[in-house]
Backbone:
């Protein structure tokens, strides 16, 4: 975070060192882009290149026509050549325009389809990465990777393709015309080009570094915006708008400085080219002008040559700037490749897989499990059992590891030691999809998506009879508010369910769990957002849902778990006692103290 001095000037915190470009790594990135995304559309690429070559070559033809225009029409006054030259020039312009239009259509299709492929691969890959990865990475950074860095694909296929095709063809055609008119003039005009090699290489290295810094800072902007908009209520209630604005301003300052430096580097390349061009053109004008005065060269030859050289420096300038764009593209492409190269930490084991247990056999057995987030231990040799078909409640203070137990069961995380078994089978040997199909989950943070209430309940389930859906929403008391909505179940819930109240969101999540009808039910403070009346109704619905299922309940309010067949008390990642509500009260230890604390005013 940038600090501020006494005069309120921003002091930018130094960024981590960015390694210099690695040519071998760059070649690997190019090969990856080609083999993974571009080669399969090689026909479209070939069509674009043909059109680009036609577009670029027309400049050479146009400059060649300047000689007969001057020598035959304007100087010699040949009337028979007027229409010929005029028709030829018009044809050149029409062909160039048609080729440009065709190329834009083909290139737009090629670049957008390829970018979409990269974005789909990124999202598909991110969906497979474990919970630990997503806890370490900010959403803003990942959004920038998917949206911002994939813009490099557009740059690759538009800027680079157009540069190599159109501008390359233009330069070759124009150099050919210039050589045809006078090879010595051409050498004189291009004498300064070899002197550009060393400064151009230095500029390219600087551009790559600054472009990478700019992409990193752009990701920080996305992350800061994500946190501001998702925490807007907290920001306004705590009066911290100036603080958040200041933090965002500091991030923008870092981005602006790196982006400006990258832009300066990119613009420096054509500037250097212009300096070399100025030297060559001035020399040719002086030398060629003397030859025309002496009569050894015609005006048409000089004007054709001069037109070719003048037109040539524009594609040369663009091609030199292309190297700067290429460095920017490689910086983004490398970040995409790095993200795609992160291996999923949790995957299905190789077959044969352990069979998923039947509904009646879904007992849960956690044996000597150790787990830590980084260096912070959460579970310390946890042993916990939940019998099939019964309700087991897990209670204890915050930080005891209760929610971590749920993450372990669904293999959102894996233990560092110990074993988790369901129905006698080690879950690490089960197919991941089959394992997660065993669970219905209702948590205190109901995850809803910006879609209709119906779709948020179905969550991808197809061919669900309307009667079954209706039964689920009535059991969860969703119908109490959807029946009053103009669009009913087809009402959109807004981003993260923002159009619904907390209690309504939780009831939608409960209806989802009811409809899923999985053999194991995980309830994490499932009624925490409900008022007293709704809580009583939904609690009754959950009790009916739990019948015949293995149910684990996390609860801080002990009143909601009194009827559980087993209550497990956790502290500091271990089970410290377990039994029924009556047994634990009689024991007079941890549970009794929690109970007394919650009900001391009763």
Residues:
């Amino acid at each position: 975070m940038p600090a501020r001095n006494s005069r309120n000037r921003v002091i930018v915190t130094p960024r981590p060192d960015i390694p210099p470009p690695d040519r071998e790594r760059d070649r690997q990135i190019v090969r990856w882009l080609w083999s993974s995304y571009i080669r399969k559309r090689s026909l479209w690429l070939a069509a674009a290149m043909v059109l680009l070559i036609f577009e670029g070559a027309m400049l050479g033809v146009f400059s060649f026509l300047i000689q007969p225009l001057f020598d035959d029409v304007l100087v010699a006054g040949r009337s028979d050549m007027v229409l010929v030259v005029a028709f030829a020039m018009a044809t050149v312009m029409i062909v160039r325009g048609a080729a440009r239009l065709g190329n834009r259509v083909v290139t737009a299709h090629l670049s957008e389809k390829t970018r979409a492929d990269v974005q789909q691969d990124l999202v598909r890959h991110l969906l497979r990465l474990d919970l630990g990865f997503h806890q370490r990475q900010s959403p803003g950074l990942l959004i920038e990777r998917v949206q911002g860095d994939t813009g490099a694909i557009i740059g690759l296929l538009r800027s680079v393709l157009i540069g190599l095709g159109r501008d390359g063809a233009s330069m070759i055609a124009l150099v050919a015309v210039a050589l045809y008119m006078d090879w010595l003039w051409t050498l004189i005009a291009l004498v300064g080009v070899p002197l550009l090699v060393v400064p151009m290489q230095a500029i390219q290295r600087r551009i790559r570094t600054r472009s990478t810094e700019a992409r990193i800072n752009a990701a920080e902007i996305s992350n800061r915006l994500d946190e501001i908009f998702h925490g807007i209520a907290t920001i306004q209630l705590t009066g911290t708008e100036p603080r958040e604005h200041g933090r965002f301003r500091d991030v923008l300052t870092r981005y602006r400085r790196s982006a400006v430096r990258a832009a300066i580097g990119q613009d420096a390349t054509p500037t250097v080219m212009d300096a070399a061009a100025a030297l060559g053109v001035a020399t040719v004008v002086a030398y060629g002008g003397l030859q025309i005065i002496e009569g050894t060269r015609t005006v048409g030859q000089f004007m054709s040559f001069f037109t070719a050289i003048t037109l040539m420096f524009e594609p040369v300038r663009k091609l030199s700037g292309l190297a700067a764009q290429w460095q920017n593209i490689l910086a983004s492409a490398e970040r995409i490749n790095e993200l795609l190269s992160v291996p999923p930490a949790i995957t299905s084991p190789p077959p044969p897989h352990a069979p998923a247990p039947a509904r009646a056999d879904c007992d849960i057995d956690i044996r000597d499990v150790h787990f830590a987030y980084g260096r912070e231990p959460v579970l310390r040799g946890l042993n916990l059992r939940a019998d099939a078909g019964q309700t087991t409640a897990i209670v204890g203070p915050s930080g005891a590891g209760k929610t971590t137990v749920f993450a372990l069961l669904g293999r959102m995380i894996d233990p560092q030691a110990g074993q988790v078994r369901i129905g006698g089978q080690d879950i690490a040997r089960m197919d991941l999809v089959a394992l997660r199909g065993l669970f219905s989950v209702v948590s205190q943070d109901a995850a809803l998506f910006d879609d209709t209430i119906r779709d948020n309940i179905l969550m991808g389930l197809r061919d669900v009879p309307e009667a079954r859906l209706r039964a689920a929403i009535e059991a969860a008391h969703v119908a109490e508010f959807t029946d009053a909505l103009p669009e009913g179940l087809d009402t959109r819930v807004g981003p993260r369910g923002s159009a619904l109240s907390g209690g309504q969101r939780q009831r939608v999540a409960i209806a989802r769990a009811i409809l899923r009808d999985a053999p194991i039910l995980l309830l994490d403070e499932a009624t925490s957002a409900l008022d007293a009346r709704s809580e009583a109704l939904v609690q009754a619905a959950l009790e009916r849902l739990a019948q015949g299922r293995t149910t684990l309940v996390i609860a801080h309010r002990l009143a909601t778990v009194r009827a559980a067949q087993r209550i497990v008390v956790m502290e500091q990642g271990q089970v410290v006692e377990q039994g029924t509500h009556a047994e634990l009260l009689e024991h007079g230890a941890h549970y009794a103290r929690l109970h007394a604390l919650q009900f001391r005013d009763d």
